[in-house]
Specification:
heterodimer, A: about 425 residues, mainly alpha, 2 domains, two-stranded antiparallel ribbon, B: about 300 residues, alpha/beta, Rossmann fold, six-stranded mixed β-sheet, globular
Chain lengths: ~425, ~300
């Protein structure tokens, strides 16, 4: 059967072994050690940590105080493209930032300057630095009367724009300045019961498993698919394959299926390993024995399909290098420039779903319809890309289309007579 | 179903550059040679016949099937490209089994057919050898085996002997003649010896055009009385090359035997008329169509 022959070709490719190595490394280094720390049932009187609650009256002064501290220091830490960047506003930008502070607090520019002198000051040293840094504290900072949270968000977004984006002063990241309250025993117990009873332990762990592997499974398969698709051209086998009777649809679909199945098998084996680990760590607790596998198929399979189809399509259209560069760009955009939320970050069109905790089932379930929609959406996109690959393959096979080539020296089109 | 290939007024472009000009050919069963220099358009025509290139205009039917029906064409044609290659880590048998599956052959047919073909191309001993370990000649024979795998009515073979040693070349030509007994075989080459040894019918291509078509004996007849042997001093060889189309020169000490093409008796002492061989005839054909001129070699 052709499918098994294609699977064998995938298995013996170098990039497939790289895929296996990377995925196993990620699984062990990220999931395995995290999951080893067991979730214990809370005991009354214990410390259960803190949680944040949304409270505009807390967020606005906290965020403003932090903003003013950075303003006085003349330095803002931003992540405009996922990487740290220290922004030092110029005089013109400082003036605009000052007017934003003025509108938020109701102080004039002179009063803001005066506040610097009256603020409590804490001197500290950053790691590996001998230059002292100053932290200004404003214990009684007031917000201008009549300031609504919505308008505050607009102003803080305006400040973020002035800073070039990626600062912690934008409406999406304001929850960081929320009020922190201690978690009560009842809350901790309810959370634990959700983990132990509703999720039957493995439900929560399976989400954590998918969260970790979901990051890598949108990138590495692009490399495998691109290299596999390029093999015929690289080894000058294309004409031999083109001249066979098989339809382009059957060939491309068989190769797509072989790539997806071969890359899914190790993930399912890792899910099995995670399942066994959970069974050992939580022996005596009732577990859901299917959820690791069903959630892998629901959550990770659409990602794998999309990445594979993307690698195949772009390679057929151009070259594996372009497929890999674009794959990295998409991955970078999703991982580094995406939302700040690591738990329950689910929206209908997200390629990478984040829920970096075995807890908070209710947060995940609250977005479950978006989760299902996004998975169906990306599986659909994958099938559209496969259809595109079939069309491109058919056109190339009939000599109607040539792939776009990078202007490298050895990429000159050779015309044979 | 007709056992011929009909090519009528076929034109082909690569972008704005025309690669084939009004190609007209009828090819029947047996070996057919397509002879021409590198860049003459042979590979383009071969690929067009294998439904790997789209023609701009004209008609092609292969055994009665229009070339536009690519799937049907692919099921009755076998193609051996100029640079035949297979997955290096596959064995000879695995390669054929894979390509057989792509040709829609079931497991039973493949199991029966592959050993027969390996025997035919003398690769039985190498059936478990990886493709990367095969010699150039063995690879070419594997190429023929894959092209014959699905028992095609038409075999299209593009420059199959280039780079082979003389022994492998002869073996390969014999193999082609053998398989041509029951099908149409189109052999594209720039090596005149391949055509001379295996084809009865041929066409000569140059710059995308068919210059001449007919039988080998007709081509030889065309060059009759046009080939001369001149025995002269070695120092005159360069001067002769400037004045005539030279198809060969053999040096013996201070003298040289020079084969020249000329419509009239060469103005040289001791020129004697000789029987043309196919190489002479091919060169005369190019010369008479203005594709080469006297002194070109210089």
């Amino acid at each position: 059967m052709l499918f098994f022959k294609e699977c064998k070709k995938v298995f013996f490719s170098v990039t497939y072994f790289i895929y296996l190595a990377v995925m196993i490394l990620m699984f062990i280094s990220q999931y395995w050690f995290d999951a080893k720390i067991t979730v214990e049932k809370p005991v009354e009187g214990g410390d259960f940590g803190c949680t944040t609650v949304f409270d505009a009256e807390t967020i606005m002064p906290n965020a403003t105080a932090a903003f003013m501290n950075d303003f006085y220091n003349g330095e803002f830490i931003c992540y405009p493209y996922g990487f740290i960047k220290k922004v030092h506003p110029d005089a013109f930008e400082n003036e605009k930032l000052c007017s934003i502070i003025s509108e938020i607090t109701g102080y004039s520019a002179a009063e803001i300057e005066e506040l610097r002198n009256s603020a409590a000051v804490l001197e500290y040293y950053e790691e590996f630095s001998t230059t002292p840094k100053i932290q200004y504290k404003f214990p009684d900072l007031k917000i201008a009367e009549g300031m609504t949270y919505e308008h505050f968000c607009e102003l803080i977004d305006e400040a973020d724009d002035i800073l070039g984006g990626g600062s912690s002063y934008n409406s999406d990241g304001l929850e960081y300045y929320s009020k922190e309250v201690p978690i009560t025993y009842e809350e901790a117990l309810a959370e634990y019961n959700e983990f132990a009873e509703d999720d039957k332990v493995t439900g929560g762990l399976a989400r954590l498993f998918c969260d970790y592997l979901g990051i890598d499974i949108v990138l590495i398969p692009v490399f495998v698919a691109a290299a596999f698709t390029y093999t015929d051209r690289k080894k000058k086998i294309s004409d031999i394959i083109y001249s066979r009777k098989i339809s382009s649809a059957k060939l491309v679909l068989t190769r797509f299926a072989a790539l997806v199945v071969m890359m899914l098998i190790p993930v399912l084996l890792m899910a099995a390993a995670a399942h066994i680990q959970a069974a050992k760590l939580y022996s005596g607790t009732e577990l859901d024995n299917t959820v690791f596998y069903t959630l892998t198929l629901e959550w990770l399979l659409p990602n794998l399909m999309a990445a594979t189809a993307f690698g195949m399509l772009i390679t057929e259209l151009s070259s594996p290098i372009i497929a890999e560069i674009l794959g990295i760009a998409v991955w970078f955009k999703e991982v580094c420039l995406g939302s700040y939320e690591l738990v329950g970050d689910i929206s209908s069109f997200d390629l990478i779903i984040r829920h970096n905790s075995e807890m908070y089932r209710s947060v995940f379930m609250a977005n479950y319809s978006e989760f299902i929609f996004s998975r169906c959406f990306w599986a659909g996109i994958a099938l559209v890309m496969v259809t595109g690959t079939i069309a491109v393959y058919e056109l190339k096979r009939g000599g109607v289309l040539n792939e776009f080539r990078l202007p490298f020296k050895n990429n000159k089109i050779k015309s044979k007579a | 179903m007709a056992d011929t290939i009909e090519i009528k007024k076929v034109n082909k472009f690569y972008g704005k550059k025309q690669a084939l000009y009004d190609i007209d050919l009828t090819i029947g069963q047996g070996m057919f040679g397509l002879l021409g220099r590198n860049g003459a358009g042979k590979t383009t025509l071969m690929k067009t016949l294998a439904a790997l290139h789209k023609k701009k205009s004209g008609n092609i039917t292969i055994c009665g099937i229009p070339i536009e029906k690519a799937k049907a064409i692919r099921s009755i044609t076998g193609y051996l490209p100029q640079d035949f290659s297979m997955y290096p880590s596959m064995t000879v048998t695995e390669s054929l089994d894979y390509l057989g599956a792509l040709s829609g052959m079931d497991k039973k047919s493949r199991t029966e057919r592959i050993p027969q073909l390996l025997k035919k191309v003398n690769l039985t001993q190498q059936k478990k050898t990886k493709v990367k370990a095969l010699s150039g000649g063995m690879k070419r024979r594997l190429g023929i085996a894959q092209a014959l795998l699905h028992n095609p009515k038409v075999l299209i073979v593009d420059e199959p002997t280039a780079g082979l040693d003389p022994e492998e070349r002869i073996r390969f030509r014999n193999l082609l003649c053998e398989v041509a007994e029951e099908r149409i075989v189109i052999l594209s080459t720039h090596i005149v010896g391949d055509i001379e040894a295996s084809c009865e019918d041929l066409a000569i291509m140059n710059e995308g055009r068919i210059l001449w078509k007919g039988t080998v004996s007709q081509l030889l007849d065309m060059a009759k009385d046009k080939v001369w042997l001149i025995n002269t001093e070695k120092r005159f060889v360069t001067a002769v090359k400037k004045e005539y189309i030279v198809t060969g020169s053999v040096i013996h000490g201070d003298n040289a035997d020079i084969r020249v093409i000329s419509d009239t008796v060469p103005d040289l002492q001791g020129a004697i008329r000789i029987e043309p061989n196919l190489e002479d005839a091919y060169m005369y054909c190019l010369y008479s169509h203005g594709c080469i001129a006297k002194g070109d070699e210089e």
